[in-house]
Amino acid sequence: MADQTPGERLVTVIAQLREHCPWMGALTHASLVEYLLEEAYEVAEAIEDGHPDAELQGELGDVLLQVVLHARLAEERGSFTFDDVARGLGAKMVRRNPHVFRPDGSLQDSFPATLEEIEQKWDAVKRAERPERRHAFDGIPEALPALAKAQKSLDRADRAGLGLPAGVPVPANEDELGNLLLAVVRSARDGGMDAERALRAAVGRYQRDQGHQNDQAPS
């Protein structure tokens, strides 16, 4: 064990726990979903609240545990391993960032100066990888919270040159924005409405409308 890297040791420990710990042995991909989401939110909280680096390190470890567990479950049924996950991710980062890497993984001689150039290259590679995704909104997880889904949808629409819904005067800072959003939720509550459901429905209508217009547009 002494010659194992920390990552290799972690994979070994999880494999042993899966074999010898009844609780670990009973885990499934489905039963792990709630823990994966919880750990991701705890990382976000540690960052946003400025927790000490040692705490952030621990929270990142908890997220890594979820990745290793899912990979172990897949390995047990002969599908893929943690190394396959890491190898695939490294290859994808090289492939999706041609502004930094050549196809063989070596660095380019020069790099683009603007975020717009980077986004254009990234989007072009993603379209080539997933030609079945015909619309800007394809691939946005349905299970995203409504507010995150709305922001991601608008980001995608803006980059694709689609129409954006009408906005309101832009708040001066995130404190003002938070107060505005809270006031909207308060109004929904007072009116007996569900703000999450209402926004999710509005995002769905917007995506469908833009998708329909995109279908009708000349290619």
From TrEMBL:
It comes from Arthrobacter liuii. This is Nucleoside triphosphate pyrophosphohydrolase. PANTHER family: NUCLEOSIDE TRIPHOSPHATE PYROPHOSPHOHYDROLASE. Residues 28-101 form the NTP pyrophosphohydrolase MazG-like domain. Gene3D superfamilies: MazG-like. It holds the Pfam family MazG. It comes from the Bacteria.
